[in-house]
Every structure is written in structure tokens, then in C-alpha cells.
Amino acid sequence: MKNIDLSHPSVIPVEHWHALDNGLIQCDLCPRECTLREGQRGFCFVRGRKDDKMWLTSYGRSSGFCIDPIEKKPLNHFLPGSSVLSFGTAGCNLACKFCQNWDMSKARDMDRLLDQAKPEALAQAAKYYGCASVAYTYNDPVIFYEYAIDTAKACRALGIKNVAVTAGYISEAPRKEFFKWMDAANIDLKAFSDTFYEKLTGAKLQPVLDTIEYVANETDCWLELTTLLIPGENDSKEEIEAMCKWIINHCGAEVPLHFTAYHPDYRMMNNPPTPASTLEMAREIAMQAGLKYVYTGNVFNPQGQATYCPECAQKLIGRQHYEITDWHLHLNENGKGCCDACGAAVAGVFAASHGTWGNRRLPVRLNT
């Protein structure tokens, strides 16, 4: 394991840690609460101890920058059709055996982070390319907390919005500051059982539920949830029903929920892909439970990708993959989205018209 080079510009001192009586220091950023000796790195690998302080080693360094459709995050009720500048770093504070971005989230070689950008450069690039937002994604932005927040501040100054794509595994104190700077978040609710989280992610369920409930009820950050359904692991009717009831009781019926299809990856190559019928079953269960906006992803299913009015069932937004095919929304005098047919309010953050970025994916290089 490489030592932390304090002279490298990507290494910065961080907060959210404290010294213990036994000579160790404890990281307080996430519920893992890693305790470190001198020279050790935490579970996430990008935060570590040097000279009796905690440092972040990936500040300003990225695995790459790409302009995506906002629906790819996935966010269906946040500026539909708009483009978002996406980036991540390396490492993760979860150990998901089914990770779909394992080449980045499990990377422990900082030299792979060839792209560099200061927060101000990222904000300026988003504005230059006409992106409505910047997304902190690919690996979990919780572990590059300071870099994400500094970038979010620079984006806010230029009128660019901020999107967190996260597993929500963050402690209470840093959680408040992090989501204060986020305009939207998609949180992975990976399952609704402690057994799943402990066995397949090396984490715990309750801290994730705490984060979801906090964002839904105590912030202005728009929230959507995603559950990757893995055959035989988290796709039982009973578990899906329990999860949907929890969401309604703790967050409300207007939080959009995305059920997405699993494909074999990383350390779970022997599990079969998720059948489309499982996604359709989950969507039906969620709607019967009372959730108003439920989607299916990673499969071609125009019905499961469309947004419908919760009052009159009018198709409000039609989608073909990430392309907007129908738009039957208008803004009321308060700037809120409403159904063209019946005038009912539609939860979300909408513009007067949808974006036209479509299915494009545009990798970009930042000259910093």
C-alpha cells in the first residue's frame, strides 16, 4: 500500500475525525468509524492517517468526466431531459459484491485517476457545455466529501445545480452539511433487510434508512430512490411490500422509486439477470402500496419508464430509454409542475419545457 504523499496537491487535511485514548484516531464521516494507526488508510482507501491527522487523497482527481442525461442517474422528476456533467473518483465505503462500477469504486490505485479538475473548473465546464447540473456519481461522493462540497459551492455560484448519487452511508453530522449543498439525490436502497446489507455490502441498513428519512423530511434536496433487484437476494414480494410501506410511512407517497435490473458482475457472476417480469411485479406491488411514481430501469419498458398523473392517470412524460417522447406538464403560478389534463400537482423539479439531451453520452476532458 502506498504511503500518503502530503506534497501531492490532491491530498488535503479533513475534518470529521477524533483522537481516541488508545493512540488511534477514528474517522467519523460514515458509520464504519474506521480506527487508524499512523500510516493506515480507512476502508474507503482514499481517507487515511498521516502525521496524526486525517487526509483525503483524491481531492481534485477523477476517473473521468462525462455528460449524461439526467434520467441515467436515475432522476425522472428533476429537470427531465436535461444534461448533467458526471464524475467520480476512486474507492468506496461499501463492499457490494454486485457492484456495477467496481472498476472505479474498488480501485486502490490513485495513479488511475488521470483526470484532474479543481471545483471552479468543473463548475465552469458545466456552464460552458450547457449542463443544468453536476452529478457526483460512479463511486460514492460521501468518501470525497470535501471535493464534492467545494464543487457544489462553485456550481451554485454559477447557477448550476448539484446531484448526489449515493448509497446514503454517511454519519449524522457530516450528512447535514453534505445535503445542504445538493439540489437532488438518488439514494440506493439496496434492499430492505439487515442480512442482505451485511452479507452483500458489508454495511448496515439502518444508517441508510436514517439518511433517506433525513433527506426526505429535513432538507430541500429533491429525493428519488433506486433498488437493484437481484434474483433470490432481495426480490421477494414480502420484502418489496415492507420496503414500500416504510417509504410511504417515513418519506411520503411522492418519492419516486426506481426498480432496476441486475446483470452479473464483479463477485456475483453466477447470479442470473433480473427477469423483466420481476421488475413489473415490483412496480405493481409498489403502486398498490400507494407510491405514486414507480419506474423500471435497465430494461426497455416504455410503460415502466413513463410518468403518469397520480390523479387522472394521464401520461405526463413519455420516455424511450433517456429520450423524452411525450410532455404533458405545465408550470403553475408557483412554478410547480401540473398535469395538462386535470391540473393536479406533480411532485418534482420541472422547467417550463423539457430538455433535449436525449440518449447522448459525451466524454469530456477538462483543461485545468
Topology diagram in text:
Layout: E1 12-13, E2 17-19, E3 25-27, E4 35-36, E5 47-50, E6 53-56, E7 61-62, E8 65-69, E9 83-87, H1 102-105, E10 115-116, H2 119-128, E11 133-136, H3 145-157, E12 161-166, H4 172-180, E13 184-188, H5 194-201, H6 205-218, E14 222-229, H7 237-251, E15 257-261, H8 276-289, E16 294-297, H9 302-305, E17 307-308, E18 315-320, E19 323-327, E20 329-331, E21 337-339, E22 362-364
Parallel strand pairs: 9-11, 11-12, 12-13, 13-14, 14-15, 15-16
Antiparallel strand pairs: 1-6, 2-3, 3-4, 5-6, 7-10, 8-9, 8-22, 17-18, 18-19, 20-21
Helix pairs in contact: 2-3, 7-8
Average pLDDT metric: 93
Adjacency order of strands in the biggest sheet: 16-15-14-13-12-11-9-8-22
Second CATH tier, the architecture of the largest domain: Alpha-Beta Barrel
- The number of distinct β-strands equals 22
Coarse shape: globular
What would CATH call the class of the largest domain? Alpha Beta
Give a summary of the structure in a few sentences.
The chain is of the alpha/beta class and 368 residues long. The chain is built from nine helices and 22 strands.
